[in-house]
Automatic annotation (TrEMBL):
<dbReference type="GO" id="GO:0016459">
    <property type="term" value="C:myosin complex"/>
</dbReference>
<feature type="region of interest" description="Disordered">
    <location>
        <begin position="905"/>
        <end position="996"/>
    </location>
</feature>
<comment type="similarity">
    <text>Belongs to the TRAFAC class myosin-kinesin ATPase superfamily. Myosin family.</text>
</comment>
<keyword id="KW-0505">Motor protein</keyword>
<dbReference type="GO" id="GO:0005737">
    <property type="term" value="C:cytoplasm"/>
</dbReference>
<feature type="region of interest" description="Disordered">
    <location>
        <begin position="616"/>
        <end position="635"/>
    </location>
</feature>
<keyword id="KW-0547">Nucleotide-binding</keyword>
<dbReference type="GO" id="GO:0005524">
    <property type="term" value="F:ATP binding"/>
</dbReference>
<feature type="region of interest" description="Disordered">
    <location>
        <begin position="847"/>
        <end position="891"/>
    </location>
</feature>
<dbReference type="InterPro" id="IPR001609">
    <property type="entry name" value="Myosin_head_motor_dom-like"/>
</dbReference>
<dbReference type="InterPro" id="IPR036961">
    <property type="entry name" value="Kinesin_motor_dom_sf"/>
</dbReference>
<dbReference type="InterPro" id="IPR027417">
    <property type="entry name" value="P-loop_NTPase"/>
</dbReference>
<dbReference type="GO" id="GO:0016020">
    <property type="term" value="C:membrane"/>
</dbReference>
<keyword id="KW-0009">Actin-binding</keyword>
<dbReference type="GO" id="GO:0000146">
    <property type="term" value="F:microfilament motor activity"/>
</dbReference>
<feature type="compositionally biased region" description="Polar residues">
    <location>
        <begin position="872"/>
        <end position="889"/>
    </location>
</feature>
<dbReference type="GO" id="GO:0051015">
    <property type="term" value="F:actin filament binding"/>
</dbReference>
């Protein structure tokens, strides 16, 4: 199989449009000529008929139609970007949102409810292997359940200026959890969400985690009305009987700046709006808030609520979920009180005198906030507008400016909210695993679902984006390692001769971020220095990292000050250093923390205490009976910066906490098998069923799907079991060989013969233990041969069928003509005899009248002669002939001009019979003949000789219905539609006997 033959005339290829953004168009090779040893000249004709000539460059090949919208991209014979994109796009156009790409499931967001999650569908995927049914999330979840694999739902991708928030990760994660936690026999009503019906308490509790975490951890962003602003890892725990016994929830990096600031197109966390919209007015009054949330600084910076969100309804769902989790009404009131306190906190009016910040003593918002928080008002005010600096010998309080005081105020709000979130997660865990983690101790296996933020790249990228992208970089690395290891494991398992290949490794970028002298450690070092600033941090970065060794991954941007650029696996991202240090430190002043921990509000104390659990401490307190869980735990991942509460313990920074928790998570993932679901966003406008190829392509590239494909093409991307291969391609070998081998199930032998017959070069394939491994393009060649063979068969069958049909048609035609001519003959004969009889009767009557008259005259003459002498008598015969006479032979023939057949059958009398009337006498010769004729069956006369003599030109014959007439020149041509109609529905009723 040479390159020349790959591009043979008629081959379909993809031609890039003018700009890559626009994707590709399809073209066909018109001519292919060799211009040098390694260059071809191709003339291509595209869809619009335009011709293009390419010399040297070879366009990507299009797949055979069978494979074009394959449900697994790994089965594509030509693995190239346009083919992958086309497959995903054409499936999406058929409303198929899921496609496999090897071990990865690609899910394209439909942006509207789809009937893919009904109880019937849930049922159909239970107990089925992946690949048995259409690609689906449930197939992956079922696979995970069967082999106890960890399931990872990660989001990755971006194009300039947009992240892939809203791709559908959280929805997918929810669906997977619902599927796994669904009872084996789901309810049968049609409601898509109903497969929770009949769930056990623990299953209901697992599903209740979603509304709670969404209310407190999701917010409306520019790209997603319900964007998760934290990472989430949920472990579903199973006992030895595969029954769900509980679950664990671990969260990562809740976005905290959102509490105090939102852009105009975004919102704060849903729970604040839910509270204002859903709480009865008397409860609102007791919290000193109203349904009009615009009075709060923390809520009025953002945009309006989206019409899609009904905050009131969602609030009730949140309350129900809190009840299911076991957070009673009293606790719920306490939660709402803390939330209200934060809203009031944001309204504290901080003004600036010439030198320092001031807050009115009676500031109503402060009074209200402190009342709900149970914190001493004077102390709070003091430590909001002042800062204490500890020197070696003494403590000095210095004043703050208004912006600094606002920072302190907001840091308290953010801290309290983060603590509350952490407390909720702990409460959820307690309810899902029992206070001492009993369920975790009983669990034998687990399935983890990771739904973590995707790659982010905004106009201005800060510390949050840095952390998120760092997480994605690590996840991508795990993905690459896993996918390529898995792909290459197959070669080892099948004992294939194979040299291992390298993949595009993103380790240098990871080292740059988390290495010993990497960005995170420099940031930590600088954060701990009392005089450290963002500028000094950047200086150190450049000094340490702007070296030739890091050239590929670290850059100093030319046009941005106070920024640095990292070349991520997906894209280069420039980070503005402003705020890095503050965000990394992210601690409330110690004085304020002391106030909070000493609060008179017992609930707030509990919340802060829970959150201040040191990072790394076991989440579940040791069980009194000493049971320990076998299930690995990624550990507590709280991002609440702790202070060690007055001890001299070094404060962990946000960066170091995140790095640590990510490390444990990765270690855990490495010990398990992973399924990946890549969620793709088909357009930026959340429009249902709109597919923007360039955007999806960028996501496929960034998600490593195309890189995986690149690696695959370097090896043997097509792997078929001998049986599957043989069953599909046995028709390529001799018809005497194939079927007997199939009968004996000699699949490998058939495979060998097929490859020989197709002339596939030895370098293009390898035989494994159970599979045949094929290089890229081989399958396409085999498909082409197969369709050529099938076309030949089809051609023969078509012609054979035509021949048979034509024969049948002619037979019918002849029969119809015969029936018609005989029928007409019989009818005419009948009419002839009736006419004949009538004329005979008339002649008879005339003769009798003549005879009577003659007799009368004779009698009269006798009398006269007797009276006056004799006269000469007249001949009776002469007179009868002259006056009346019977109809002559020619006259009757003229009346019934039937043609030669009838003529030959009729023996007409030369003259009327002189015999007496029929009654009471012997029939005349003519009468006997006519009787004989009328009795004769029509078929007696249908001999070929009589047909040959039949009067085809007679007017009667011309009346043969047109639609029965064969098409002009029919004998050697294909049947016409009229003919087909005739064949399908004859114009006569076949049950009618034409003889009657
Ligand atoms: N499978 C799906 N069926 C219907 N709509 C979906 C599906 N997946 C996502 N969506 C829509 O897309 C929106 C964003 O999805 P989400 O999972 O929140 O995105 P992400 O977590 O990736 O940011 C959802 O609110 C929903 O409207
Ligand atoms: Mg999400």
């Amino acid at each position: 199989m040479t390159t020349l033959s790959l591009y043979a005339p008629g081959t379909r290829v993809y031609l890039p449009r003018e700009s890559e953004e626009e994707g590709w168009i399809t073209a066909e090779v018109v001519t292919c000529t060799k211009v040098s040893a390694d260059a071809l000249k191709l003339v291509l004709r595209d869809e619009s008929g335009q011709e293009t000539t390419l010399t040297g460059t070879l366009p990507p090949l299009r797949n055979p139609p069978l494979l074009e919208s394959a449900d697994d991209l790994a089965t594509l014979s030509h693995l190239n970007e346009p083919s992958v994109l086309y497959a995903v796009q054409s499936r999406y156009a058929q409303r198929k949102i899921y496609t496999y790409s090897g071990i990865v499931l690609l899910a394209v967001n439909p942006f509207e409810p789809v009937p893919l999650y009904t109880p019937e569908i849930v049922k159909s995927y239970i107990g089925r292997n992946k690949g048995e049914l259409e690609p689906h999330l449930f197939a992956i979840a079922e696979d995970a359940r069967e082999v106890r694999w960890i399931f990872l739902n990660s989001r990755l991708k971006l194009t300039d200026g947009c992240d892939e928030s809203g791709a559908g990760k959280t929805e997918s994660a929810k669906l997977v959890m619902r599927f796994i936690a669904a009872p084996k026999a789901p309810a049968t009503n049609a409601d898509q969400n109903s497969f929770v019906d009949g769930a056990s308490l623990v299953e209901q509790q697992i599903q209740a985690t979603n509304p709670i975490l969404e209310a407190f951890g999701n917010a409306k962003t520019t790209r997603n009305d319900n964007s998760s602003r934290f990472g989430k890892f949920i472990q579903l725990l199973f006992d030895s009987n595969r029954q769900i016994v509980g679950a664990r929830v671990r969260t990562y990096l809740l976005e905290r700046t959102r509490i105090s600031y939102q852009t105009t197109t975004e919102r704060n966390y849903h729970i604040f709006y839910q509270l204002c919209a859903g709480l009865p007015s008397k409860n609102l009054e007791s919290l000193r808030i109203s349904a009009d949330y615009s009075q709060f600084h923390y809520l009025n910076q953002g945009g309006p609520s989206s019409a899609e969100l009904s905050d009131r309804d969602k609030f009730h769902a949140t309350q129900d979920a809190l009840n299911i989790i076991g957070i009673d009404a009293g606790k719920q009131t306490s939660i709402f009180q803390v939330l209200a306190a934060l809203l009031h906190l944001g309204n504290i009016n901080i003004t600036q005198t010439r030198t320092e910040a001031i807050i009115e003593d009676e500031d109503p918002a402060m009074v209200q906030a402190m009342e709900f928080l149970g914190v001493n008002l004077t102390e709070f005010k003091r430590w909001t507008i002042k800062k204490q600096i500890t020197t070696r010998s003494e403590k000095i309080a210095t004043t703050l400016t208004a912006p600094q005081a606002v920072q302190v105020r907001d840091s308290i709000s953010r801290f309290v909210y983060a603590c509350l979130f952490e407390w909720l997660v702990t409460a959820i865990n307690e309810s899902l695993t029992g206070k001492y983690g009993d369920a975790a101790a009983r669990a034998e296996t687990h399935i983890g679902v990771l739904d973590i933020y995707g790659f982010e790249h905004f106009e201005k990228n800060s510390f949050e984006q840095f952390c998120i992208n760092y997480a994605n970089e690590r996840l991508q690395h795990e993905f690459n390692t896993y996918v390529f290891k898995l792909a290459q494991d197959d070669y080892v398992k099948e004992k294939i001769n194979w040299t291992f290949i390298d993949f595009d490794d993103n380790q240098p970028a990871i080292d740059l971020m988390e290495g010993k002298l990497g960005i995170l450690s420099i940031l930590d070092e600088e954060s701990r220095l009392p005089l450290g600033t963002d500028a000094s941090f950047l200086q150190k970065l450049n000094a340490q990292l702007d070296k030739p060794a890091n050239k590929a991954v670290y850059k100093m941007p030319k046009f941005a000050n106070a920024a640095f650029t990292i070349a991520h696996y997906a894209l280069d991202v420039t980070y503005q250093v402003e705020g890095f240090l503050e965000k990394n430190r992210d601690t409330v002043p110690e004085e304020q923390l002391a106030l909070l921990t000493a609060s008179s509000n017992p609930f707030l104390r509990e919340v802060v205490d829970t959150a201040l659990h040191r990072v790394g401490e076991p989440v579940e307190p040791p069980s009194p009976n000493g049971a320990v869980s076998k299930i690995p735990d990624p550990g507590r991942t709280s991002l609440v910066g702790t202070t060690g509460r007055g001890t001299s313990v070094k404060k962990p920074t946000l960066g170091s906490i995140f790095k640590g928790s990510l490390g444990t998570l990765m270690d855990m993932l490495r010990t398990t098998n992973v399924h990946y679901i890549r969620c793709l966003k088909p357009n930026q406008h959340k429009m249902p069923w709109e597919f923007h190829p360039s955007q999806v392509l960028a996501q496929l590239r960034a998600a490593g799907v195309l890189e995986t494909i690149r690696i695959s093409t370097a090896g043997y991307p097509s792997r078929w079991t001998f049986e599957t291969f043989a069953r599909r391609y046995y028709i390529l070998i001799h018809w005497r060989e194939g079927p007997p081998l199939i009968k004996r199930e000699q699949w490998k032998r058939i495979t060998v013969l097929v490859l020989q017959k197709a002339g596939i070069d030895k370098s293009k394939h390898q035989f494994g233990e159970t599979k045949i491994f094929l290089r890229t393009g081989v399958l396409a060649t085999l498909e082409a041969l197969r369709s050529a063979r099938l076309n030949a068969v089809l051609f023969m069958q078509t012609n054979m069928r035509r021949l048979i049909a034509m024969r049948k048609y002619r037979h019918f035609q002849r029969s119809v003509v015969a029936i018609q001519s005989h029928w007409r003959g019989a009818t005419a004969r009948k009419a002839f005899h009736q006419a004949l009889e009538k004329s005979l009767k008339e002649a008879e009557a005339a003769r009798e009248a003549e005879a009577a008259k003659a007799a009368k005259e004779a009698a009269m003459a006798g009398r006269e002669s007797r009276a006056g002498g004799r006269k000469t008598p007249t001949s009776i015969n002469d007179r009868s002939t002259a006056s009346t006479g019977s109809p002559s032979k020619t006259k009757i023939r003229k009346m019934f001009s039937f043609g030669s057949k009838e003529k030959s059958a009729l023996v007409l009398p030369d003259q009327p019979s002189p015999e007496p009337p029929l009654i009471g006498r012997q029939p005349s010769r003519l009468e006997a003949a006519s009787k004989r004729l009328s009795r004769r069956s029509w078929y007696d006369t249908s001999t070929s000789s009589s047909r040959a003599k039949s009067p085809v030109k007679s007017p009667n014959r011309a009346k043969t219905p047109n639609h029965l007439a064969p098409p002009a020149g029919h004998s050697s041509k294909m049947p016409t539609p009229i003919y087909d109609q005739f064949m399908k529905k004859p114009p006569w009723n076949s049950s009618t006997n034409l003889l009657h």
